[in-house]
Description:
Layout: E1 2-7, E2 14-19, E3 51-52, E4 58-60, E5 65-67, H1 76-79, H2 82-87, H3 102-105, H4 118-126, E6 137-144, E7 149-154, E8 161-165, E9 175-176
Antiparallel strand pairs: 1-2, 3-4, 4-5, 5-9, 6-7, 7-8
Amino acid sequence: MSQVIWFILFGCQEKAINVPGGTNNQNQDSNTTNEEETTNNNDLECPDRWETNDDGIWTDPVTCSAWSPLSSAQTWHEVVSSDEANTGGCNDFCDAEPAINYCSQLDLGGLSWKTPSIEQLKDIVMRQPPFNNLDYDLWSRDSDPVDEMAWTVNAEQPGMEISLYKTSQAYVRCIAQ
């Protein structure tokens, strides 16, 4: 992401903010503090439009996020890590089946991957990404611990999110930001 310098009228301080469409690897101004920087474990180039590479990784020009190729059908427990399950609402109420960490163990493009949230999936599906064959449900890390279900979106039906039993088979597109 490229940086835009904002001059604050009171005290003429500089503040850097990240904006989509640039790169993360530009030099930082020596006046920029760590609190003002948006940190990122991945070194992504933000394209002007959707792009894919030889690994099948799609880069979103709006969020500057990378999306993995579509996985094979898996259960929710195979997709998420324990940390992602807790972040997604599982906490102490989740069933005992251990998480397998498909996304966090994905070794693709030198990026750090995670299971997307339901909000990230809803956003991407509403913007109609150029993925091939959209007829599938995508797992999110978000779950309902009370009834052992997790949230998915149907990539072919923007705006439709449904919950599936965690033992059901669905797909995942992991996200790197």
